[in-house]
Amino acid sequence: MGRMTLGPEDRTAAEALDARDPLAFARGRFSVPEGVVYLDGNSLGALPSGVRAAVLDAVDRQWGQDLIGSWNGNGWWTLPERVGDRIGALVGAAPGQTICGDSTSVQLFQALTAAARLRPDRRVLLTDAANFPTDQYLADAVARLLGLEARRVDPAALEVGPDVAVVALSAVDYRTGELWDVEEITRKAHAAGAVVVWDLCHAAGALPVDLDGLGADAAVGCTYKYLNGGPGAPAWLYLPRRHQQAADLPLTGWTGRADPFGLAGAYEPAEGVARARIGTPPVLSMVAVEAALDVWDGVDLAAVRAKSLALGDLLITMADGLREYGLTVVTPRAGARRGSQVSLRHEKAYELGQALITRGVVGDFRAPDLLRLGLAPLYLRYVDVWDAMHALAGILAANEHEAPRYRRDQTAVVT
Ligand SMILES: *Cc1c(COP(=O)(O)O)cnc(C)c1O
């Protein structure tokens, strides 16, 4: 791709990229509102077209008509394993190692505790000082519970001492979009005898991940970002086969028990990854996730990655053209160090985000000064990126974002 300036004639270059995009067909699998450039799929993925019918069927027919018979008759009971395996296929996990359910926060608690218990003679848990808050809080909570020390580190300068039990990091920095060297970090941690827990919230569905090949000891992720499972969709936990027998999971709910319907008084783990089940699965949400995963049929994750990087290249090139307005690119330029978002720094990032929304461009803001633009290659076109950056250029050139109505409201909720 050539360098793109901001002249209006360059939109045709973006159109040409769309015309030969091997993933162009995938946009038709989503309901993307007309006139909106959606750059927030890294926070809440767009709606896959098949979800509505699946949820309506689960409500009207399965629940409304079949009632309790649906636990078996409509496969409700096996949703966590079934959906888990389909998510696993997108993150390099062979079947029988991934379970869907609960929130990422809950799964982090499960994974971190079980991981630490695999190294009972060690007392340090390493996490990223810039990790998503819930990851840091849960690391602290697990450390407190098990009498460990949760230490913050910079993943770029990771050192793993002999006292480290667990290295728990996110593959992608949620603020800057930086992708860490997952292979090298895993190798380093293993060389020091530690176990590794990866948080793949910003990686699953955004780039190829090979959990089995990596030898990750556990992983977690949500399904509402690049997996498009919907608001509050249940998360997932990867527990590789080699650890399943020894894994001492803290949340021993009844559905993870061997013979759960025996209703025995004492817990005994089920065989395999089923032991990571906790309570009754959130059926309606999980039905939505299952239908949402259909958008991946026949999609090559290498093509997703290639398009994600090309969209990012276009965005970065156009952002560079706006340096004179105090806009800088925070995300690393090297493709190998980028997740699937580009973060831009500007002292009025919040106001810029609001002005962009007025122009139909939805990104998000991360305090204090980041404008985060997510690139979901299944439904995003090159012209969308071009239009978004062209809109940003127009806003900056006309100082639109300085209008009083865009001033930051103290009560604004930023999730
Ligand atoms: C999105 C995200 C979460 C979300 O956790 P929830 O329990 O679903 O609210 C956690 N960690 C990371 C790194 C995330 O990006």
Automatic annotation (TrEMBL):
Claim: Hydrolase is one of the keywords in the record: yes
Catalytic activity, as annotated: 3-hydroxy-L-kynurenine + H2O = 3-hydroxyanthranilate + L-alanine + H(+); L-kynurenine + H2O = anthranilate + L-alanine + H(+)
Cross-referenced InterPro entries: Kynureninase, PyrdxlP-dep_Trfase, PyrdxlP-dep_Trfase_major, PyrdxlP-dep_Trfase_small
Pathway assigned to this chain's UniProt record: Cofactor biosynthesis; NAD(+) biosynthesis; quinolinate from L-kynurenine: step 2/3; Amino-acid degradation; L-kynurenine degradation; L-alanine and anthranilate from L-kynurenine: step 1/1
Pfam families recorded: KYNU_C (PF22580)
A GO term for molecular function: pyridoxal phosphate binding
GO biological process, one term: L-kynurenine catabolic process
Cofactor(s), names only, from the UniProt record: pyridoxal 5'-phosphate
Assigned GO CC terms: cytoplasm
Assigned EC number: 3.7.1.3
Sites of N6-(pyridoxal phosphate)lysine modification: K225
Keyword Protein biosynthesis: no
Similarity field: Belongs to the kynureninase family.
Quaternary context: Homodimer.
Function: Catalyzes the cleavage of L-kynurenine (L-Kyn) and L-3-hydroxykynurenine (L-3OHKyn) into anthranilic acid (AA) and 3-hydroxyanthranilic acid (3-OHAA), respectively.
Protein name: Kynureninase
Natural source organism: Amycolatopsis saalfeldensis
Lineage start: Bacteria, Bacillati, Actinomycetota, Actinomycetes, Pseudonocardiales
